Amino acid sequence: xxxxxxLSATGQLGHGILRDAFARGVANKPxxxxxxxxxxxxxxxxxxxxxxxxxxxxxxxxxxxxxxxxRKLGVPLVIGSAGSAGARPHLERTLDVLFEVARxxxxxxxxxVIRADVGKDYLLGKLxxxxxxxxxxxxxxxxxxxxxxxxxxxxxxxxxFMKALDGGAEVVVAGRxxxxxxxxxxxxxxxYDAGLAMHLAKIVECASFATEPGGRDAIMGYxxxxxxxxxxxxxxxxxxxxSVAAHSLYExxxxxxxxxxxxxxxxxxxxxxxxxxxRTRVSGSRWEPSPTYTVKIEGVEKTGHRVxxxxxxxxxxxxxxxxxxxxxVGDLTASILEGDIDPxxxxxxxxxxxxxxxxxxxxxxxxxLPIEVAVIxxxxxxxxxxAKSVCSVARYYLLHFFYDGILATAGNVAVPFVPCDIPAGxxxxxxVYHLVEVDDPLxxxxxxxxxxxxGAAHA
Amino acid sequence: MPRLxxxxxxLRSKNAGPFxxxxxxxxxxxxxxxxxxxxxxxAPAALAALLDFPTDRIRVVPFxxxxxxxxxxxxxxxxxxxxxxxxxxxxxxAPLLDLEIA
Lengths: 459, 102
Description:
Chain A is an alpha+beta fold. Chain A has helices spanning about 20-25, 45-50, 55-75, 90-105, 120-130, 145-150, 160-165, 180-190, 195-205, 240-245, 315-320, 320-335, 385-400; strands spanning about 5-10, 30-35, 75-80, 110-115, 130-135, 150-155, 170-175, 220-225, 230, 255-260, 265, 270-275, 280-285, 285-290, 295-315, 345-355, 375-380, 420-440, 445-455, 455-459. Chain A has an 11-stranded mixed beta sheet with strand order 12-13-9-8-1-2-3-7-4-19-20, with helices on both faces.
């Protein structure tokens, strides 16, 4: 088969595509442009709150670049994990911006929108049917946990994208997607080897991360019958056998295999060879379909509202016993609030930067005395009012706690600004990270087609 | 005995999903990679004390194509939960820097 050119625009669309490398990629006549907007890495907040992690203004800028390029070349544009978390509000926000860009630049195309939201009844049915299992070291899924979920999405595999391409889509905007599916779908749909397509996809989805010294510039994968070639579109970045192989390690529990919805990518026999100083040839990667098709479900639950207060402790007499002071102020706060605020309605902790801020109880170095300690009084309460009340008491008594040997009796904390209590919005945590056996790879991912005519969408 | 930080070109920690943490240790060359593997320092039992995890929760996978060793452990607290300290998991590698390699 003819070589297929797969252009990945950037590591995460919405954070500023690097123009030069992208323009070089477009000049190299790709057969499609792919862009991933999401990451498993951004924590539970965005999925819970329905907000995008990148700013609308930057999404607009990046979408304008890829959309104009795709239309000019007449090749498909495939966007996955729209709006970072890929649930309904994120997809809607992304589409609003997409239509605005299409209007401004008078672009017309057939659009496929693929949703990835998971309903509670659906998951409950699967749980009762014994079709749910944890994905890694995750707490068991229970009906209660499903009921408490704020929002859930499924990570779609290649099939919904392929179906959208069957439907004649020129632009695909998908909700939560497996990163690799965004880039592997079109080659597999065209009949290229799934193992090579999937491995190529896994590498290019992070843009030029798999190069030396590394970057977020656009990258091209040239897919052929029995191998593919990786080349950064930034001439200063080198895709070496080492850098490309090393990428298999990134954000994966096992470098030899990548588990995807319909099977696994086996890298144990992959070969990485230098084509020249900047390009690497990869072969031998194999796709093994699995007998059951599983979709990974991500869900979060709301734990309350967060209010924080920030300050620095400089007195060496206090710094020397800071953990003890924090523990005692926590106890004092609880005793003051007793009878007024139910202890079950809030959680309070003092984060001590300079002591164990980064590693918490995992910190082993406990002997060195820092010059100063930043303390974040961190409260998550059932309501913002409760969190504010608890935070105000806790940071007040941290300021005025009479610890052993105190000399500086006017206050223990250098406070950088007032007001001291800062509302930090709703708080969430991951509660669902499970694999669900599906009967049909498309069952969770409905596709809707729209004809966009200079920005106006028609069903 | 050399310390790990002298033998590597990359030593990083990162989330592998919201419930697991993974360490990538990429050596400067193949002989250093082989030496580290042979030293026994990366046996799960040896890492258990350093990382403060039970031996059976530590998974060690050598990856020769990149002269790398991968170590994966469950997160103590899921990414972004109240007791978590590192949403991206990218500052948990420090204890490995001074690991002595025989």
